[in-house]
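Quick one: structure for this chain?
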Amino acid sequence: MYSIKKEKDIPYILKYHRAKDMVNIMKFFPGLSPVDDLVVILDEDDFEKNKDKFDESYNIRNGNPISEPCMRSIIIKNFNQDHLEALKMIKKGNKNGVLILFHLDNEISNRYERYAGISIGVSLGNAVYIDAVGQGFDGREVLKGISCHERYTIPWNDIRKVNIDNFKSYNTYIVNNEEYQKSRDERIDFLLKCDVSQEILDKKIPKKYTPIPDFIWLDVIKNVIKPLDKDEDYLRSEGFLEFNLSGHTEGKKFKPWQMADDQRM
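Got it. Here's what it folds into:
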């Protein structure tokens, strides 16, 4: 088992897709990720030897070596947080696959209660590209290219001057009613499969599109966009020329879990 709490384990954790993405964001955007613990379980023997070091509050992801194409994500709800069953399923899909367990420093909100899902693509020295979906959605839609409700492009030279007063001037797309209804229907179909009731979804996912609140964008400007200017040379020296931060909001904050570089995108 590899743990982010052991400095000597970090190089080994970075050898796995998804685990690497989660460590990247902790390194380059400290304090932004809600992850406060992460371990990588290599196989069933490794699980049995270390199972007393984590509990059911640890969330599940799958990973595989970065020398291979990133394997498809497993459907977490199928395992009801059964870590061993998830590991067995991962191994069926890829013998080199590993179980990534992580713990969050906040209570996870319901998937239909979030203000936004946001994907921020960075082309270092060129531009920042933002795709977002609104209330009742999360990062799944934008990360997988399923839906987009708002889109922004900020030229690199404008990073220093962007603020909440001029942010909307960088908007290049906003969803129309017809497109929003289609995305809403698809979102509801997906959440119904996750055992959320139709009654709750009818109430929680707006019937008409409501733009993402300014306090969310203010948080993104302060904690993601502005640091890019300060850390440009550092990111470049580490080889991060093209990368993406993605996730959803928790409360009034953008809390991305991962930072994927061009090896994964």
